[in-house]
Amino acid sequence: MDKLSDSVGFKYDFKVADDGQYGQQKATGEWTGMIGEVIDGTADIAAGALTITMPREEEVDFTKPFMSTAINLLVKKPERMDLGLGYLVRPFSTDFWILLLISIVIVGFLFFLIGRFSPYEWIKVPDEKDLRGAKNSFSLRNSYLFTFSSLTWQGFREPPRSISGRLLASFWWIFVLFTIVAYTANLTAYLLARPEQMPLMPFKTYEDLVESNDISVGALNFGATQDALRKSRDQTLQNLWNKMSQQGSWVSSYYEGLQRVKKSDGHFVLFAESATAEYLARKNCDVMLYGDNIFHKSYGLAVQKGSALGSMLNKAILELRESGELELLRQRWWRFAGECSGIDGRKFSQKGDSLSSLPIYPVTLRDMAVAILLLFLGMIVAVVFLILELIYHTIATKGKIEKPKMLDKKIFKAPKVPKFTKKSKEKKASPQDPEAGVSEPLTDEALEGTSGEG
């Protein structure tokens, strides 16, 4: 009104309607509320969340619409759904969890077998060379510790030493990588879609409201919403109107309706114009809008029939709309008016929905087929290489020729060179001498050098 008064050039005083109503025609033809006061001249302008309707248009002049609206339900936000103790296991299906446990048992036992029987594992290292105490790295207990620690991306001091053990570890780590990535991604999706953002509602459609005996439906008495429901030709809305008339759950003001919604614990809902309902939800974090939009309408200012004030207000409203002032005012007083979020329940999960019906599905065996096949392939390859290692080690061991024990000791000695006497060197043989060419018999000293072992 400040913007309009500055543009048109008038001063104003606010006055609340004596009966607190917007205006509805009585059976006598008289009008109540703000419309009645404009007609009889008590007020020059009727301003507020005043809906433009045909019966009102026949009695007063409305300005150009300054805001569009519809009819929604104002409901209490449902309580947070119980997640249960098994919420963290939801990212995987039951059959995949079973397969994962079986895989841990099998892989851990294979590590133990490889560590026990492979001739190239730590257990075969001599004690004097096992400086780090790695011989028991793949005992039964440590094999399962290695398997589980790698599943949680934790380190281990001693990796497998043999080719078969390293092959099994490599395929197991690939399987673990796929598993952890899938779990983390799916758990994130579940947390983003947790019931704080998708609570369950006790009803889904307006038909459910008609059939429900636990929920009362109210509306503002003598308001445009009440009049629209009464005149509606939609069968569901007619049935809803009959139910509301029987219950008599009308409210005299939106404040009264808000308090009933908040205290009803979900057993009372209020039909309200969406602009008003949104404003109330911004200020009160325990309520929200819900239901499909019905009865699309607009708000306008009402003046007396034929008043020149109407054309001046129309011009000012058009200027405010084209300049963007109306949108700024809406953001200021609606979007940023309160601190409450999640006020639009139309995007929330509805009746009959649960986490299993949300567009988030657990990871199944089919989804992890590639990782599972790689793991089982790795098991087979590791067992084959273990057998090959045993065969190779057996052949290599039997093929070695043992060194004779006699070669370990020096049992032969080189013979000593014979010693000749001086006499044998000086004696010369002659061709005429019959004893020529016959050596002198060895002496006892010479024999000592050649006889016997040194």
Automatic annotation (TrEMBL):
Where does this protein reside within or beyond the cell? Cell membrane
Residues with site note (Interaction with the cone snail toxin Con-ikot-ikot): R230
InterPro entries in alphabetical order: Glu/Gly-bd (IPR019594), Iono_Glu_rcpt_met (IPR001508), Ionotropic_Glu_rcpt (IPR015683), Iontro_rcpt_C (IPR001320)
Q: Which SMART domains match?
A: Lig_chan-Glu_bd (SM00918), PBPe (SM00079)
Q: Where does L-glutamate bind?
A: T51, R56, T225, E273
Region annotation (Disordered) maps to 418-454
Transmembrane spans: 96-117, 171-193, 368-392
The record ties this protein, via SUPFAM superfamilies, to: Periplasmic binding protein-like II, Voltage-gated potassium channels
The residues covered by the Ionotropic glutamate receptor C-terminal domain are: 1-336
Q: Indicate the segments forming the Ionotropic glutamate receptor L-glutamate and glycine-binding domain, all copies.
A: 1-40
**Mind telling me which Gene3D superfamilies this protein's record contains?**
1.10.287.70, Periplasmic binding protein-like II
Q: Which GO terms describe its biological process?
A: monoatomic ion transmembrane transport
Q: What is the topology of this protein in the membrane according to its UniProt annotation?
A: Multi-pass membrane protein
Q: Does the keyword Membrane apply?
A: yes
What domain of life is recorded for the organism? Eukaryota
- Its chief place of residence is membrane
- Cystine bridges: C285-C340
Gene Ontology CC terms: plasma membrane
Q: Which UniProt keywords apply?
A: Cell membrane, Disulfide bond, Glycoprotein, Ion channel, Ion transport, Ligand-gated ion channel, Membrane, Receptor, Transmembrane, Transmembrane helix, Transport
Designated name of the protein:
Uncharacterized protein
